[in-house]
Design brief:
single chain, alpha+beta, Rossmann fold, Jelly Rolls, eight-stranded antiparallel beta barrel
Amino acid sequence: MNKRKYILIVTILLFSISFLFTAMPPVYAVEDGPIFEDLWVDMDDDVGLYTRVYRPGPGAYPVILTRTPYGIAEPGVVPDPDDLTAWPLQVSHGYAFVEQDTRGRYSSEGVDHLFYDDGPDGYSTIDWIASQPWCNGKIGMSGGSATGITTYLAAGENHPNLVAALSYVASANLYNDVTFDGGAFRADSMIWTFGQTVTGLSISHMLSVAPPTSWVGHLTAVGTSLYDMYTHTSLSPGYRAVDSPTWMNLPLIEGNIDYSIMQPFGDEILRHPSQDAFRDKLNVQDTIDIPILHVGGWFDFFSRSTLDAYVNLQHLGNQKFFMAPGTHGGLGSLPYDPYYDWFDYWLKGEDTGIMDEPAFAYYCFGAEEWRWADQWPLADIDYTKFYLHDDGILNTCPWSYGAPYESYVYNPLDPVLTWGGRNLGLPAGPKDQRPVQEGRSDILFYTTDILNDDTEISGPVKVQLSVSSNCTDTDFTAKLIDVHPDGSTMLVLDNILRARYRNSMSNPVLMKPNKIYDITINLGDISYVFKAGHRIQIDISSSNFPKYDRNLNSGGELYTETEADMKMALNEIHHHGRHRSYVILPIITPETNVFEGCANIKISGLKYKGPAEFYICDNAVFLHFDDQWIKWDITYHRNFWHMDYYRCNGDLGKLTVTKIVTKWGIYLNAAGHRISFSAKV
């Protein structure tokens, strides 16, 4: 079976090469009914990017643009004008739709630099669209994963005609937040970059890096390495990552010569292991000023980065977020499909109601339900420290009377293997960690007593460790785990910190052997309920491979080291006296801020009487019924012992809200001009 898969990969590869040598057909246009044309749009440096334009018909329309490295179509392939199912759905919704191959990919000219040119190229493309007579001046962008990244990067260029965007599972700070997460290289991204190398490089890219007579040999070799990685995805049955010559290959820079020849920019990225101007070019999360609907997944590869973009931009007041339960390969269902509600609102000026609902919608594991909030992190969080103690104890007591530290030996030749988490190309999601825990002496386990009550965390999770090592550099990893009554240990969150980056990602400083340092591992955010009868566990180690590259413990120049530089690290976790180690959990105190009751509305243009939900958020209150949201901003809030009093203002006028807590229940009443709501919990 594996041999057959290998033959299939090579066959597809050779077919792709033969396609690249074929002559490109001429440009076609269909002027009867819906209109189509394909052409090459020149960038500022005269590089032409292959572009396809679909229009509902004559006239000017709002435009939605998608820029992709995955290939849009073969030039000259024309959609049937009599079959609208062959056209993008945007056309039937009254939009002109433009899609484009990114630089150096498929039918576009230029050299593929792995997103580095996509900000300026996006700006130039938007500039061209805005100058066309079929554009009414309002342009949106959309995309997911790689096309979501190109969307963020173009948005960061602040073109005046780019009005709004929608980005699924992507990053607005790719090299800093993702590629070098925690200061370590996200090695699982090599599955994607190797795959991009063997498929989709344009003729002009390949001519710039190698003579045509060598293309088949180089790309076939890269395809062989890709197959090796893909069949050794950590714990694949019989194919562990440590048995893969590609995963274990050193050095990382120019370690795979065929890949380096065909995609030299991959090595260029690795030559910037510390945050610098090169990496910051792809950080646009502070410069965007347009409305963006961000969509992420709790177990998605880009989860933390997508959320960081929203958190950095939410002060604009025009951002929206959906955080789904799934992985990069399958997000799971959203509360509804927001695509046309979002673009119809911002590009057509239609009142779709999407800006009336709370800005942040998120799925809560354990409760297994969608929830709504108007900011993230939530305001009412009890950030609680759970301390790591000797004998594997995890509790809220800061004092420890056992051994001052625990130690383990980290061997880069025998790393802890990845199983689950927020991964790309590797098995993702909340996997049972027992297969990677059992029989290892280089993992420290810290576990709470059995929980008497459900414990919800919703927000950022950080692990603060006091550490030391006999080496000048090493890694420290942490996992947040849900221990079920049957003994399964389900992964919730995980991350890493490369010790030389403990103080700054831009100014690395090596450790002094055996000196104690305080470090922080940012595990990211989650909304999760640890059920009564379960236990909370923290695992500490120094590797999570091949999700992250292995630290060779030498303190040498990253990604140039070889096995000859490798050292064994004796690493210590301290938890005594002033050297304490703990995890900070964002615990949500049970409090009712969502009420089910009865609403009565008798205003002009809107009459309703019946069941409804009333939400009290941090900055606003919302009335929800029949898929409709009404919002009032909170202008005044006062707490009087067991009563909360709110004065609010919205499009429907003023609203006063009282919430009274008694031993018989919680009572809520809201009243405005010909609007009322009441409920009891």
